[in-house]
Amino acid sequence: MLPDLPHLALAGFQATALLAAAPLVSGFARVMRAKMHNRQGPGLLQDYRDIVKLMQRQEVWPPDSGWVFKAMPMLVMAVLLVIATGTPIFTLAPPIHVMGDLVLSIYLYALARFFLSLSGIDSGSSFAGIGASRELTVGVLVEPTMLLSLFVAALLAGSTDEGAIATAIANGHMQSAGAAVLAGLAFAFGVYVELGKLPYDMAEAEQELQEGPLTEYSGPSLALLKWALALKQTLVVGWFVGLFLPFGASADLSIDGVFNGALAFALKALVIFAIVGVLSNAVARVRFRFTPRHSWAGVGVASLAFVFYLVGV
Amino acid sequence: MFKLLKEIFRTGQATALYPFAPPQTIKDSRGKPEHDPVKCIACAACTGACPANALSMKTDVAAGTRTWAINYGQCVFCGRCQEVCPTNAIALTTEFELAVARKDDLITRATFKLAYCRTCGAAFSTLKEVDYVARLLGALAETPKEAERIRAHAEICPACKRRLDVEEMAQANPVRQMECL
Amino acid sequence: MIPLSIHNPLALLALSLALFAAGGFASLLCGRNDARAIRIAGLSGALGGLSGLVAGLFALAGPATSFSATGPFPFAHFVLRLDPLAGLLVAVISALALVGSIYGLAYVREYAGRGVAAMGFFMNVFIASMLLVVTSDNAFWFLIFFEMISLASYFLVIFDQEREAVSAGFLYFVVAHAGSVLIMAAFFLMANATGSFDFAAFRSAHIPEPVASIAFVLGLLGFGAKAGVIPLHVWLPRAHPAAPSHASALMSGVMIKIGVFGIVKVAVDLLGASGGPLWWGLLVLAVGAVSSVLGVIYALAEHDIKKLLAYHSVENIGIILLGVGVGMVGLSMNQPVLAALGFMAGFYHLVNHAVFKGLLFLCAGSVIFRLHTKSMDHMGGLSRQMPWTAVSFLIGALAISAIPPLNGFVSEWFTYQSLFRAARDGEWAVRVAAPVAAVALALTGALAVMCFVKAYGVIFSGPARHHHHDVKEVPSPMRVGMALLALACVALGLASPWVAPVIGHVASATAGLPDVVLAQGAVTVPGDAGQALLSTPVIAVMLLAMGVLPVLIKAILSGHGRPASRRGAAPWAAGYLPDSHMPITAGSFAQPIRMFFRPLYSVRDQLAARWNGVEHGFDDLTAAARRAEPRWDVEVIDPVVAGTQKLGEKLQVIQGGDFRIYCLYIIAALVVLLALVIR
Amino acid sequence: MNAPIFRDDLTIKPQGLSMSNEVAALKGRLLKSIGRSVYVYRVDCGGCNGCEIEIFAAITPIFDAERFGIKVVPSPRHADILLYTGAVTRAMRMPGLRAYEAAPEPKIVVSYGACGNTGGIFHDLYCVWGGTDQIVPVDVYIPGCPPSPQATIYGFAMALGLLDQKLKETHHVEGEGESVPLIHPEIPYALRVAVERRAREMAGYLHGKVIAEAFLAALAAPEPASVEARLAALTAQESDPRVVEIYGQLRAVLRAMVVEQAS
Amino acid sequence: MNAHTPLRIGSSYVAALRAKLPHAVLEERWQTDRQATITVKLEALPEAVRTLYYVHDGWFSTMAGNDERGLNGTYGLYYVLSMGGAEKCHMVIHAQVPEDKPEFPAVTPLVPAAVWYEREVRDMFGLEPVGLPDARRLVLPDDWPDGLYPLRKDSMDYRFRPAPTTDAENYPFINDAKQETTVVPLGPLHVTSDEPGHFRLFVDGEDIIDADYRMFYVHRGMEKLAETRMGYHDVTFLADRVCGICGYAHSVAYANSVENALGIVVPERGQAIRSILLETERLHSHLLNLGLACHFVGFDSGFMQFFRVREKTMMLAEMLTGHRKTYSMNLIGGVRRDILAEQKLTTLKTLGELRCEVRRLVDILLSTPNIGGRVTNVGRLDPKVARDHSPVGPVLRGSGFRRDTRADHPFAGYLSGATPINVQTGCDVLSRTLVRVSEVFDSMAIIENLLNDTPAGPILTEDFTYTPYKFALGFTEAPRGEDIHWSMLGDNQKLYRWRCRASTYNNWPVLRHMLRGNTVSDAPLIVASIDPCYSCTDRVTVVDVKKSTTKTVAYKEMERYCRERTSSPLK
After folding, report:
1. CB contact under 8 A, B51 and E234
2. Most buried of A93, A129, C464, E144 (most Cβ within 10 A)?
3. d(C-alpha A163, C-alpha E481), whole Å
4. Based on the structure, what is the number of domains in chain A?
5. Contact criterion met (CB < 8 Å) for A207 and E296
6. Are residues D103 and B59 in contact, defined by beta-carbon separation less than 8 angstroms?
7. Do E38 and E112 lie in a common domain?
8. Domain ranges in chain B?
9. What is the spatial distance between Cα C79 and Cα C85, in angstroms, rounded to a whole number?
């Protein structure tokens, strides 16, 4: 059950490939955004340029910050890479089997969130502090939806292993198709909130909080953090795609299969990020006070999925 | 949301090509004031009218020069200089590419020679101004002698002119002067 | 009866008890020599803890050993029984006693001149009585020791003598005794059905359904009050913070576990043969879910660090009960794997909570030791001056927030897995209840993360909000205490594939079930590998391995000739002069939750209002007592004191305070209690 | 008013920041690395808002500065370029310096608009310091009041080395025999002035000048012989009724002058 | 604006005042047929202002302090009220403060709208408003030395720059919160405010419990400049730069004030062109505000679309005036550029396009998800608060008051027809936005009407003489509300005093009330909903007077004041 060499190789490949592609994802978002503004906009590779540039800049630490502030971008990126080794994205099974439990995934994201928010307080900035508070609050509001929808999917597959869920959905071995679809919808909502895009970009709300936890970062740390956040967006979409739209993912470890799986993921991600691009640029940020209304809707859909599962529709 | 998408598709890309294509300028828009030093008589009408003090005039008596200068960094592009210039020496263009890295590049100067009063010898104006005034007024003269008189008069500084006027008046009409006294 | 010998865990337990007792009385005898009292109480506590720990660990594997003696009362034999569950509790109690005692060696200096000798005495009595409760196998003696716990801890709660502490202590006293009465009633019912006070008799008897259910509910309420489940939690967030921090660590870390132990004892051990219906388990599950969510929500609103931790105890008791509830459900549905898994998850979390909550209370104690305030709004930026405390607290915070790969995550993972199994395989009602409980657990987890980001952030991060310029790290005994527990957090997490089967055995043995598969090599599995896999060692390795990558990226890409990093002059305050009111405070940080969960807070206020009546009564009583005091002095107390002056002087040593006031308080409290119960 | 005081005695210099040579050397490197990725932080040091709105306009669809990787960021910690506007009022001195301090080294400072460059129309007031370079070292000046979005794009392109600087310091020295030509010497001075003044009252300094010039040119033209005919032709060519109206007014001036002269 | 008509609209107010304060009214002077300056005894000042304000539906327009010691040995105070009753006119209450005792009874305790003005006059002239409970600075920066009053004629040269007294801000903020709060600083350098101003939100997490602000970061000293370096005819170009958005409105208001003072009749065509440009300015300003409202709620696509469309109005402005922003179009007596046929046709065509596009964009804006939640019932301005503080423009009209200078006190090209007034009664951000939306369409209609029906004739008159010491008010309805200027001519081709009051000046004090009870995320939007113009204000900010303390403090101070002046009618 412990990972062997091919699985480790796959894990390494998947993690580094997603990391390498992450700035492309955020660059694509910027292009989409520009197009929604009828602007020419930057190139697809703009975020690579930004990261390279930021790497050359000086770092300025807030006066009262401690090691949490300094280490956070690296920590968050590391945690996200660990998640990348356990999420079935290119293949139907998680690259590292023992990392593929859905509860583990949820709590690893919580680990990333823990340090991201903590750094907000550590910076001593008023905006970063409020951003940290919002980041966690949104987490609280969205966690029930995500857990319940995943729980339903796991019940349908009979296992909390993400690989088992992906395989079951890919093969159509589901007791209840309706429940699977609804659970997928509810999970998609949760994933959308996790993306941190409008209308749910509470923590980084530029106009309200000057980018919240990012306010005080500069230079290489800012580069890593932006990169990590892009990686997170890639990953959560990968999570959704891997579990609920696993079609095209490789069932084995063959090089061809993995390559095709990666290609399939790229296509699915392109479509999803295009939709996200349109959605996020066509709405206003939800008034923070009203966020629970939205999250209750998410819980409602997930609960409905659960009811469907119970009655076996 | 669909209304927005419709609007986006209707509009297409709105971005202008500049700087990869020539700029779109609007006729009569107020850009860089272009000074033609050849046409300038250094009369200081513009420097007096400039609300931002972007235009200045400095007289260096020792060097015998008067230097006109415009600081594009201080200019507010109102066009008052153009409005008051009697010789059309300064006019606003549509040029807007004025950014510089060195502050001194913002300054354009023109130096003119001073004119000295033919009576007292004091510097009071520039040669070009004296010349221009003389020709302008001279054009009204009906005889060359009159023109010469006008030119000679133009070359006298205001102080001397006042003095001379008083003397002239005193000679021409002593009676009235007496009355005044 | 197995004879006492050094190879027998019971013997070690007896040694431990003897050490505690000796240490306690020796401490008392030290009188006003504080340093000696601290040393004696601390060392005896540590040694007693050590031997108790060994005893408990030996007992984990079973089989049960017991010791019986005839006591002074003909109707009740003095029976001690060390079965695996008791062993687990003994180990936990002793471990915390060990650490707390080491910590106390330095910490108690804070109380120098305020009766540390008595504190040492009460601490040791407190620990010893807890050990005795979990091991006694006779209802009468159980109740006696249970009362001893309450009394000893009551004195610890009111030790500070502040208005708040005294009133908190009173509330605690009332609830504890109300609980005892209910437990007493439960035991009487069982004794009535079996004709004996021996647990052994309860265990084997078949008690008819309605009686068993009534006994169960009485037990649940009584032990629930001790455990601090909602809505019987009101005393907890007030009493725990009032006690000295190492005592708080024991109260929150282990004392409330006696409540859980009691519930398990009644429901599974004593009434096990009678076989509980499904609704027992569902009831426990419901209580657990409500306690966990509300506990953490209330914790979020706190500014007082110890109150915050105390509310988290309510939350974690809830989580433990989720596991216990699933176990009970599994038992009644005759699903041995599910039952074992549920109990195992609960017991694992019980151990874990004892460790990290103990750790957090000790860390809080360290901060208070230096800053002399419990308000988080007057802390901030301590990670630079107190790095050991900060790191320990951070480990505790991560553990309690169930962050992998630490211990809190492992036990919550098992809880999720047990809930999943229940939802998958259970009866209809269970299939509905289990996912709801899982959602409650998820919500709890997210809120706990928020709460501990707030706690760590506001206390240790960012700019300082206090005015102590010379804050430094705490003395080494305190550091050692914290470090031991922090290591335990890591060890119980990383070693989960090896720890889980041990605790699994305790669970199986308690419920009388066969062992289930909980580990395969370095991988933990919830009964079968098809359901899920988890390997904390692998997670740890992966985190370390992947941690290298960003460091490398930064090192390679950020290149040479970059200007050296520098510390800015101030955080960016939009161009304005930054001031001390700008960094976020504990209150502001949690405000969105207070806003979104407003109805739940009003539930708390309602509950608190109920208890206010008790407190008002107390206020009136003390006021009356104060007015009556001179008369008492003249007419009653003076003659008595004069008559027994020597005795009186000795007794005064106990508190170093005004003994008469205490007498009055206790008498008054008993009167009120009686009035309440009778009504 | 007090006795006159000279400006240099009145004004004290604010405590500005200077740059170390080391940092100056790093700037060259920065310019290379930010070629296509520029984070800009706006520092409004007391402008009238005109500049700020034009900066906004420069990032909107028509001008779209993001084409060049230029992005306006919300925190100075992210900035490569600090864009100072305004004449640096007294109250903005410290915030302006704080923003400079907060940004990572090296940083490029762009001074934007007349106020930022020199203080503009407010250059010598009691409550301003008179330009960005009074408090921080400036690398690029973008003139304008306010600079148009196109001028902004040009300024940034220039700062980043994409376009060349056009404006250079020049100094004309009067040459020998330099003489200013007279305007319409063939028309009596008084008449020309009267026409020009009337045209200005009717159409303003700009259009008025053009209309007066056309009118005077027609007046001075040799063909056709009759003044009235020439002016009628001029009017007939004009399609704009307003200009026709103004020609009519100018002809009235002409007529009045002629009548006056005659009398 | 004809000063020679015998018609004197507003005489009834003067009569009422004489009846109410029989011995206090010393003199009445009429600047135009709708503008009177009534000199009252200093002691009667608060009561006179209160009477006009509350009894006769007066609204506080501005207050000018003036150092007239060189003329008559006193400081003059001119309280300007815009009368909203049957007789629409401006009433100016004038009182004289003796040179040797620079204090006067504060009007603020009776009319809260005066608070900023009285604080400002203390800063700039050193005149102490007795009974004013707010002792903080308003206009002058924290690092300005005490006791140096810039607008006193003899205090200092206009170029005098004293050394800073401090490097750290020391302005005390008022926080009325009963609970513990933290501070969220918005500005002076905040991404959402294009201009510097410091808003200090006292928050409990997300909730704004109270707010205070410090403005006047943009105080440059323009009023002093106008009376020193510049000739009176140059000040139109300075007034253009009061504000980067609505500068032209200031320029017109200034020109009007001098024209009113000197009795200049501006040619009709010049007036029409002024109105056309004012409406063009309103167009781009309102579109800017609508765009920013989108931006502040994160709907950047809307922001970009509004700005894309707004570029058309900028193009119009550039075509009509030669510049996108600072029009530099006014001279005393008229305007500097004519509108020829070509420009007229282009303008009409562009307006046609603009109307369709703006209609579509507004439709998009109102149907965008979450917008409703962001603007409805957010940032409420209670009509009662509004009545006490005299805000202006869409802020006031969004709270249900029917007041618009263009209709109430017609000027420039609005003399001919009735200008529509748009009113909404929701009192929230949405109402203010909707008022602006309607005004955009009205502006287009006004421009079209004026273009299609432009009077013939000159655009400028230079047929007037400069007469020393004449003074009058000039006013416009800027996009943000009424701009009002009070100018007094000197005797050296300069102004003696220029008092420029921008619309936002009157809108700041109510902001505090609008922020309370909302959340941090609403703050930028609420601030934007008053469409603030920081530099317009040029000096001030502050907070309204704390109601609870007002009475006691004011009363005691007032008592002392009255004791010292036994003749006070207030006794």
Report:
1. yes
2. A129
3. 64
4. 1
5. yes
6. no
7. yes
8. 15-114, 117-181
9. 16
CB contact under 8 A, E186 and C574: yes
Structure tokens, E544: 């309204």
Say which CATH number the domain at E8 has: 3.30.460.80
- Per residue in A285-309, pLDDT (tens digit) is 888 888 888 888 999 999 999 999 8
Q: Which domain holds residue E5?
A: 1-170+550-571
**Model pLDDT for residues C173-195, shown as the tens digit of each residue:** 888 888 898 999 999 888 888 88
Q: How many Cα atoms sit within 13 Å of C470 on the Cβ side?
A: 0
Residues of B in contact with E241 (CB under 8 A): 76
Q: Which residues of D touch C572 (CB under 8 A)?
A: 75-77, 98, 102
Residue contacts between B and D (CB atoms, under 8 Å): 166
Q: Specify whether domain B15-114 bears CATH 3.30.70.3270.
A: yes
Q: Taking a C-beta distance cutoff of 8 angstroms, is the pair E390, E84 a contact? A: no
Give partners of A (≥3 CB pairs < 8 A): B, C, D, E
The pLDDT of residue C646 is: 53
User: pLDDT tens for residues C518-534?
Assistant: 999 899 999 888 899 99
- Interchain proximity E217–D95, CB inside 8 Å: yes
E482 with E567, same domain: the answer is no
Give every CB contact of residue D148 below 8 A, 6+ residues apart in sequence.
B96, D54, E324
Q: Quick one: tokens of E542?
A: 């502050």
Whether C563 and D106 lie within 8 Å, measured CB to CB: yes
Any chains having at least 3 CB pairs less than 8 A from chain B are: A, D, E
Q: Which is nearest to A192 in space by CA: A242, A233, A143, A151?
A: A233
Last residue of a domain, one of E494, E510, E525: E494
Residues of chain D contacting residue C569, judged by C-beta atoms under 8 Å apart: 98, 101-102
In the block, residue with structure tokens 């996009």: E479
| Phi, psi for residue D261 in degrees, rounded to 5 | -60, -40
Q: Which residues, including other chains, have CB under 8 Å from residue C582's CB and lie 6 or more apart?
A: A124, A125, A126, C571, C573, E182, E183, E184, E185
E147 with E236, same domain: the answer is no
DSSP class of residue A285? P
Q: pTM for this one?
A: 0.90
Place of tokens 């029917």: E402
Beta-carbon contacts of D28 under 8 Å, excluding residues fewer than 6 positions away, are: none
pLDDT, position A279:
93
Query: What pLDDT is recorded for position C607?
Result: 67
Q: Is residue E470 part of a domain?
A: yes
Backbone angles phi, psi at A85, to 5 degrees: -80, -10
What's the mean pLDDT when you consider all of chain A? Answer: 91
The answer to whether position E181 is within a domain reads: no
Give the CA angle between residues C28, C30, C36 to the nearest 5°. Answer: 120
Q: Name the residue among C281, C292, C459 with its Cα closest to residue C373.
A: C459
- The A residues from 132 to 191 touching C (CB cutoff 8 Å) are 132-134, 136-137, 139-141, 143-144, 146-148, 151-152, 154-155, 158-161, 164
Residue B23 CA neighbour count, 13 Å, CB half = 17
Pairing relationship of beta strands B123-126 and B107-116 according to DSSP bridges: antiparallel
- pLDDT score for E70: 92
Does one domain contain both E555 and E488? Answer: no
How many other CB atoms are found less than 10 A from the CB of residue A93? 21
- ipTM for this model: 0.89
Spatial CA neighbour of C40 closest among C55, C25, C58: C25
Residues 6+ apart with CB under 8 A from C620: none
* Total number of domains in chain E: 2
**Chain A environment of E293 (Cβ under 8 Å):** none
Q: Which of A107-121, C372-386, C447-461 has the weakest average pLDDT? A: C372-386
Same domain, E445 and E373: yes
Number of H helices, E strands in chain D: 9, 6
State whether the Cα torsion D12-D16-D21-D24 is positive or negative.
negative
Any contact of C with B, at least 3 CB pairs below 8 A?
A: no
**Where in chain C are the domains?**
279-516+529-551, 598-678
